[in-house]
Amino acid sequence: MQSTWSCTSRTDVSSVIVMKSSAQDGRIKRDRDEKLCRHNSNGRCVHCSALEPWDENYLKEQKIKHFSFHSYLKKLTSGAARGKFVALEDLNCKIRSGCRDHPPWPKGICSKCQPSAITLNRQPYRHVDNVMFENTGIVERFLNYWRTTGHQRIGFLFGKYEIHPDVPLGIRARVAAIYEPPQESNRDSIRLLDDPHDADVDELARQLGLQRVGWIFTDLLSENLASGTVKHVRNIKTHFLTAQECILAGHLQNKYPNRCKDSSNGYFGSKFVTVCVTGDEKKQVHMEGYAVSAQCMALVRDNCLIPTKDAPELGYIRESSDKQYVPDVYYKVGDQFHAINHASRVRRNGFFV
């Protein structure tokens, strides 16, 4: 008997990930400990019994920062109710329509139609655990434009999703090709143009058994042409992604959602990845993979999050207007005692994305 994972992509034209039900529980098997185990080879105890795929100690030992989305689903359905009451719902930042108790916004609003305030939290899971390119030539051809002109470049990643063996119930995006759409760019910016071949590219990819799995962009500035080094501009002291890049990532993730049977509308989150090509601490060309959270996707979808003009690392929450009500957005900051005390603050002006 075979079963598929409960969540697949809306446009998933890759081979469906199918495994035997016995291998789908994701439990991490452990060998018998010769020092601690007092039973025979057929027995199991707390020192050698299988671990759940979301076990925090195991993930920390393996240096896995986020557990996989399917491990998250397993955790939700692991209780006595077996997931009977599990319902994954997207965050809503808009006034619910159809309320007849008062005139429409801005003349009236009530607790039944008003969206709840949002507290930004770290998302514990991720939909894709790794991005892998089938060969180096894919990236080298993409980087040739920057090497020739010094201008930045954007491309869409086409490939497949597959099982990632190093993360319990993990998924890996395997990239087979990069498609570079019409665009105008210079040293500091990129502007995407209308693509008349967009649908044809998707159809060709479908016939080849591929799909869009993400997007890639460069942020490279040469430091020494002779040695081939680039500037290290993205780090913990500056930013890893700008607000504008997070907003574009959120837009694309909303465009390519993740199919999920535990959601009321059939979709939750996204497996669409973001890859940034920039300089690392050794001033070498380096790639980093990202994905924005479901909270960010909702803020982008409902037109609540915009970039700031003078600080690329800061985002801005719109003010409510006659045309749009925007809920309060809170974030948590630690005081001098950090892990002990946290304070929530409402934020509409710039905050780190």
UniProtKB/TrEMBL annotation:
Keyword Zinc listed: yes
One cellular component term from this protein's GO annotations in UniProt: nucleus
Membership in a protein family: Belongs to the NPL4 family.
Protein name: Nuclear protein localization protein 4 homolog
GO function terms (MF aspect): ubiquitin binding; ubiquitin protein ligase binding; zinc ion binding
PANTHER family referenced in this protein's UniProt entry, alphabetically: NUCLEAR PROTEIN LOCALIZATION 4, NUCLEAR PROTEIN LOCALIZATION PROTEIN 4 HOMOLOG
Pfam families attached to this UniProt entry: NPL4, zf-NPL4
Keyword Zinc: yes
Metabolic or biological pathway, per its Swiss-Prot or TrEMBL entry: Protein degradation; proteasomal ubiquitin-dependent pathway
Organism name: Anopheles melas
Keywords: Metal-binding, Zinc, Zinc-finger
Domain MPN: 131-268
